[in-house]
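Collaborator request, handled under Task 6.
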Amino acid sequence: MSTLAFTTDADGIATLAIDIPDRSQNVLTPALFADLGAALDKIVADDAVIGVIITSAKPSGFIAGADLKEIVALIDDGIDAVGAAAWVRAGASVFRRIETCGKPVVAAINGLALGGGFELALACHRRILVDRPGVVVGLPEVTLGLLPGGGGTQRLPRLIGIEKALPLLLEGRSLAPAEALKLGVVDQLATEADLLPAARTWLLTRPSAVAPWDVKGFKVPGGAGPLAPHAARSFQAGTARLKATRSRYPAPHAILSAVYEGTQVPFDTGLRIETKYFGLLVADPVSGNLVRSFLRQGEARKRGTFGTARAASRAVVKLGVLGAGMMGAGVANVAAGAGLEVVLLDRTAEAAERGLGHARKQREKEVARGTLSADKAEAILARIRPTARYEDLDGADLIIEAVFENRAVKAEVTRAAEPLLAKGGVFASNTSTLSISSLAVNVADPSRFVGLHFFSPVERMPLVEVIVGKATSDQTVADALAFVSRLKKVPIVVRDSPGFYTSRVFCTYIDEAMAMLAEGVAPALIENAARMVGFPVPPLAVTDEVSLDLQKLVIDQAKADGLDARFLRAHSDPVVERFNALGRLGRKSGGGFYDYAADGGKLLWPGLADLYPPAAAQPSAEEVGKRLLYIQALESARCLAEGVIDDAATADLGSVLGIGFPAWTGGALSVIATVGRDAFLEDCARFAAAHGSRFAVTDGLIEQVFAAAGLAQQSAA
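Structure tokens returned to the collaborator:
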């Protein structure tokens, strides 16, 4: 058996130790299912076997879940709902055989068990989990646009009750050992040394080999169906919440339906219901988009070389951060958490100390949540050295400038700090809009100058835009990628151009909203349509957050730099000027497009109706949402055509992780395939005729996008 070791001891206890070849973590594969089936045949036929332990031979954990690359391959091959249901049913039937083999089976879970890995454990008659920091169990399939297809929607509610199970299924939340035991999803905790002995001890008691739901008269804890006491809370209110917030994501609805229907019928019928809904989700393009996005993030994190760079990447031991504001302090905090020694510099010692205070506040939140010990928090903070002395930067392997978005200020701090770099060190700018090539004139060796655009808040935002200037060497980019990976962030590589990739595309989101505002589209319609289509923060609200004086600064800088008309943001410019003249600069000034209450609440500013009277005829929310999606898709396509980015994956990752493009679409370029090429082109032609050439699709543009994405030029996704 290539995927597991099968041994039997003198007491008649069989142990199946899973070890998928050539994998750092175990995943569910066809070979594993075949080997489990063959092992069960032997176990059932051998009267000397009294019980079974299923564990992992890998120290990395139990089973990380399904092989997502296999699922993507099935989707790319055009599998339909019936075929997908049959595919998952084959694996689920092996789990059912474990449950009904007639001999007690215990899962000795020696590390993380997620998705199908935890479903296998749920099919065992007992679950013993190692009690070790970092170990989690859970069913995160909903985050990938799927549902647990190996019995998870049926076993978990029957085990702990529907009301407790639904939040875990709908949120995809993972559980640490103590919480898993408290909820009843595992039966026992054990140290690593005691894990297998505890499993053997239980089997030697000759326990029952029948799952609770296979016992005659079994009832779901807390009840099932429309008359259950929790039914209104679990299903009616739950469905209403999903319609309001997750209408673009079919998986939560499918999970609710599978649980509602499946828990009212015999268990095996419930399994068939589950696999039916699983098949429908796989056939929906949203699941493919979310799974691809997840895989792309993992691939991007592993990226370590660039272009012709072949030498080993420079290891950063000492990091300098210039500017202790929220961005600089966030970078310092994350870097210290990754084990780096950080010098956090600002104009005054007091300002630098405030930056350390920001980091301290963030770490205290982790301690309060129980995700970080107080000792570890203090050790991380001790690695940050606040200072106003440039001399303290001496010998830094990397210095990141994160000061105010002003050329003169950036030039001043760069010239003061760059000579203190260690030999061969890298200098980086955290600018979001200013040309990297133009900023590189302030250093002695422009080949060792690169852009590292972090996103706020740095602690939460996973993306870093690595920006390549005209003189930036491949080795410098490789070094930057290695540093970003060290921080466990997701890097994308972007060529230097006005706004780079993320800022350039993000500006079209804001600009299109302001164009609609000037056309007389109701502000509430703009904001609600954005939410309905899946944007986490609507465009007028997000403009208030980043501030309208910053928008003016960016637009004025573009004019001063002599950029061509398409970068001068003609639709935003007059609106931004008007709001700056009114002193309504956004949240920080107490009002912008919204009014802000002292208690944190906000409402759209009533004065908007006087400045921009609503038109008598209003577009549909669907039309508004499409405009906000498609303008960013077109700008991403232009970035690809101009060589700002190399591929569709970069556009999709950057838009979803950096600027909040709705994940259900797959990203700002995948949305074209998701809605269908012909439908997209038809809508764009209509928008171009009604609203201007920014929606015009030039010859070959969409074909280039499809070629880059490796997609057939088909009418539907």
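The cover message to the collaborator said: "The CA atoms of residues 364 and 370 lie 10 Å apart. The first strand starts at residue 4 and ends at 8. Please let us know whether this matches your experimental observations."
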